[in-house]
């Protein structure tokens, strides 16, 4: 059984949705370990115990504490440690609110701004916003990639994330809605000896209950391993 780490819980994205979503995939293949209070629990040594980490968490300590998660000199695992983890062979999957990072949503002190910028650079996208929750269609554009194996187009009500993607990303699928237009929905990168996969959908439990989305996540875990 593969042990996989999941980081979750922030102001607008309660842990319950993520926990229930991953529970639909738990069984003989995976054991999911959840950390909510990442700032006070996760260390480089603990991170190294897992071949893959899923980040489903924006820059809050927890849902009940909106202070920044990343604080230089305090948080033991900051973006630089995530980068080193991937460069050394780890897998990192950033799902939905794991991509909701922007300096304008962070406290102005440099000890908070610097790690926020580093996380944006690490995952390769900058969050600009989203329209009100609406039907969002996932359209597969790279069916040959292992992460998209067996995945069909689907539509669920979700937050349609709008991000600026930069760097040498390989796009997997696009997301489309009437109010949000056409956006990059998922992409992958190789960093050193490890792999990064970024997925924009995932705000509602209905998305996680869709077999096509769960297949994307399972494929991403396997690919990152």
Secondary-structure blueprint:
Layout: E1 2-8, H1 15-23, E2 30-35, H2 38-41, H3 44-47, E3 52-56, H4 79-87, E4 91-95, H5 110-123, E5 125-129, E6 134-140, E7 154-158, E8 162-165, E9 170-177, E10 181-191, E11 194-199, H6 205-209, H7 211-224
Parallel strand pairs: 1-2, 1-3, 3-4, 4-11
Antiparallel strand pairs: 5-8, 6-7, 6-9, 9-10, 10-11
Helix pairs in contact: 4-5
Compact overview of the structure:
This protein is an alpha/beta fold. The protein has 7 helices and 11 strands. The strands form 2 sheets. Strands 2-1-3-4-11-10-9-6-7 form a 9-stranded mixed beta sheet, sandwiched between helices.
What would the keywords be for this entry?
two-stranded antiparallel sheet, alpha/beta, 225 residues, globular
Fold and architecture overview:
By secondary structure, the protein is of the alpha/beta class. Helix content is 26%, strand content 31%. The protein is built from 7 helices and 11 strands. The strands form 2 sheets. The protein has a 9-stranded mixed β-sheet, sandwiched between helices. A two-stranded antiparallel ribbon has the order 5-8. Helix 4 links the parallel strand 3 (52-56) and strand 4 (91-95). Helix 4 (79-87) packs parallel to helix 5. The chain is globular and about 45 Å long. The chain starts with a strand and ends with a helix. The relative contact order is 0.17. The model has no long low-confidence stretch (mean pLDDT 97).
SSE arrangement, N to C = EHEHHEHEHEEEEEEEHH
Give the fraction of residues assigned to helices. 25-40%
What value does the Rg take, in angstroms? 16 Å
User: What is the structural class?
Assistant: alpha/beta
- Count helical runs: 7
Mean pLDDT: 97
Stretches with pLDDT under 50, minimum 5 residues? none
Strand order of the largest sheet: 2-1-3-4-11-10-9-6-7
Oligomerization:
single chain
Q: Give the N-to-C terminal Cα separation.
A: 13 Å
Overall form:
globular
Specify the biggest β-sheet: 9 strands, mixed
Percent of sequence in beta strands: 25-35%
What is the count of β-strands?
11
């Amino acid at each position: 059984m593969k042990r996989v780490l999941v980081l979750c819980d922030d102001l607008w994205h309660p842990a319950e949705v993520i926990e229930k979503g991953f529970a639909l995939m738990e069984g003989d293949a995976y054991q999911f370990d959840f950390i909510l209070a990442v700032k006070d629990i996760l260390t480089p040594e603990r991170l190294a115990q897992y071949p893959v980490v899923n980040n489903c968490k924006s820059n809050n300590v927890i849902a009940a504490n909106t202070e920044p998660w990343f604080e230089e000199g305090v948080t033991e695992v900051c973006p630089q440690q995530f980068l080193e983890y991937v460069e050394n062979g780890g897998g990192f999957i950033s799902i939905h609110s794991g991509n909701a990072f922007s300096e304008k949503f962070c406290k102005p002190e440099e000890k908070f701004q610097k790690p926020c910028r580093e996380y944006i650079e690490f995952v390769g996208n900058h969050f600009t916003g989203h329209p009100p929750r609406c039907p969002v269609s996932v359209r597969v554009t790279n069916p040959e990639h292992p992460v998209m194996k067996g995945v069909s187009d689907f539509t669920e009500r979700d937050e349609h994330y709008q991000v600026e993607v930069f760097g040498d990303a390989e796009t997997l699928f696009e997301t489309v809605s009437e109010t949000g237009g056409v956006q990059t929905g998922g992409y992958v990168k190789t960093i050193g000896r490890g792999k990064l996969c970024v997925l924009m959908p995932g705000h509602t439990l209905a998305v996680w209950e869709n077999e096509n989305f769960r297949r994307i996540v399972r494929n991403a875990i396997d690919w990152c391993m």
